[in-house]
């Protein structure tokens, strides 16, 4: 019996309830690099946080963009030839990766990016699902009529 690993659904999708689109997008997301490492947290009923470990990157090196339902985080370091301090440094071991990256997350319907902050080498991006009033369930009273001219 074959088992289906649904972990890709939890790695790249935030607040989406459409299983078919999730499975389709998860197959595309599997082609992404695993760098930089990240966490996705559920902070409340409709509140989420993505935390990425981006040691060595400054605020100026990181770009965050939301287009339609895609959150894109890009990190670009300047070339080491431009940094004269790095010319003087000699590493015996260099295990902290500072390579450029691009990470994309599919956002669910009505998920809005609220804020981003960077602290101690961690980038935090807070999001919330804000359902419009027109989409929320409403109670219909029995016997009520729709009056055209009120």
From TrEMBL:
Superkingdom to which the source organism belongs: Bacteria
Keyword Manganese in record: no
Keywords: Stress response
The keyword Mitochondrion appears for this protein: no
Signal sequence, renumbered to the chain: none
Residues passing through the membrane, by range: none
InterPro entries named in the record: A-crystallin/Hsp20_dom, ACD_IbpA/B, HSP20-like_chaperone
UniProt cross-references to PROSITE patterns, sorted A to Z: SHSP (PS01031)
Cited SUPFAM superfamilies: HSP20-like chaperones
Domain SHSP: 29-145
Similarity comment: family membership: Belongs to the small heat shock protein (HSP20) family.
Protein name, per record: Molecular chaperone
Organism: Alteromonas gracilis
Source lineage: Bacteria, Pseudomonadati, Pseudomonadota, Gammaproteobacteria, Alteromonadales
